[in-house]
Design goal:
The chain has 344 residues and is an alpha/beta fold. It folds into 2 domains: 155 residues, Thiolase/Chalcone synthase (Peroxisomal Thiolase, Chain A, domain 1), CATH 3.40.47; 168 residues, Peroxisomal Thiolase, Chain A, domain 1 (3-Layer(aba) Sandwich), CATH 3.40.47.10. The chain is 30% helix and 26% strand. The chain is built from 10 helices and 15 strands.
């Protein structure tokens, strides 16, 4: 295993240090809801089968007139409103379902959101993308390069999932989430305290969308080796979350909330068991969104803030696993904020 860790001294040094602080949270979901019963008709399955194996009851999917950029821009604007600002110094965009391979989407999102000529670039780390982007943006702030960054994650997997493949068609939904990061110190709620990042390229074929060289100009569907991914996801997220808790000086017994990537209910339940956490301290929020890949963690956070499952002051670990293979975790004390959400 290869892993990279960033510990800014929250545990070993009580003196506050420079840190990136979450100050705003926004999300956007398509208004179009697709229930299990709609999918079951053409997939030789049932609502009960899907619920039992995935924990998903419905998911949101964009209509032909919308794009991943529309979702991203709406979530970005909502995060800015949540933070009470209309300006940041940079934008990092996480997606694996861009409208085009070139140019990157981040500059267009920045322009459409009214941010002007700011630093802007894309990150592709599949379901780990939001945490990779969060860590990168935080490092830009603590290095003194910028004072604030908008981190956006948006996905439209409905356009790359084979509608005839029962193993993947029922899992994925579309959506977007974003946070505003500002410069601050480790003594503030919302400050990013520790990060853990890792990858294993020997598993690159386990989660993939074929390239044009492999499949020509025809439709390139998303594929996933379900059982192998299931086992890797549990192992990698558990290990990564433990490393972040150790760096923060926390134990599972003192953790307020674990917020995992919302892949499916069975992975989340197995992860909770691996870490010895009761269900109420592991956020499960995919019943009505499905797996939204990089967008799943900010979407889950917004829902948890709205229904008071995640309260200010909670010791919080975010953890994700995705294609690459890649994984990431971040530790923070959850801040006082109001998430701004909308539909398109």
């Amino acid at each position: 295993m290869s892993a990279s860790r960033l510990d800014i001294g929250a545990r070993r040094d009580s003196e506050p240090r420079a840190a990136a602080v979450i100050s705003g949270l926004g999300t956007c979901l398509p208004s179009n809801t697709v229930h299990n019963t709609s999918l079951a008709e053409g997939l030789d399955t049932s609502d009960e089968w899907i619920r039992t194996r995935t924990g998903i009851q419905s998911r949101r999917r964009i209509t032909p007139d919308l794009s991943v950029l529309d979702l991203a821009c709406e979530a970005a604007g909502n995060a800015l409103r949540s933070a009470g600002t209309d300006a940041v110094d940079g934008l990092v965009f996480a997606t694996t379902t861009p409208e085009r391979p070139c140019p990157s989407a981040a500059p267009e999102i920045a322009s459409r959101t009214g941010l002007g000529h700011v630093l802007a670039f894309d990150i592709s780390a599949v379901c780990s993308g939001f945490l990779y982007a969060l860590t990168t943006a935080g490092a830009l702030i603590t290095a003194g390069t910028v004072d604030s960054v908008l981190v956006v994650a948006a996905e439209t997997y409905s356009r790359v999932v084979d509608p005839t493949d029962r193993s993947t068609a029922v899992l994925f939904g579309d959506g977007a989430g974003a946070v505003v990061l500002r410069s601050g110190t480790t003594g503030e709620p919302g400050s990013l305290l520790a990060h853990d990042l890792g990858s294993d390229g020997t598993g690159a074929d386990l989660i993939r969308i074929p390239g044009t060289r492999e499949q020509g100009t025809g439709q390139r569907w998303f594929t996933m080796s379900g059982r192998k991914v299931y086992l890797q996801a549990i192992d990698r997220m558990a290990e990564s979350a433990r490393r972040v808790m150790k760096d923060c000086g926390w134990s599972p017994a003192t953790l307020g909330m674990l917020v995992p990537h919302q892949a499916n209910a069975r992975i989340i339940e197995a992860l909770a068991g691996r870490l010895g956490l009761p269900p109420e301290r592991v956020l499960r929020a995919l019943a009505h969104t499905g797996n939204t890949a990089a967008a799943s963690i900010p979407l889950a956070l917004a829902g948890a803030v709205a229904d008071h499952r995640l309260e200010p002051g909670a010791r919080t670990v975010l953890t994700a696993f995705g294609g690459g293979l890649s994984w990431a975790s971040t530790g923070l004390i959850w801040p006082q904020l109001t998430a701004v959400t909308s539909e398109v």
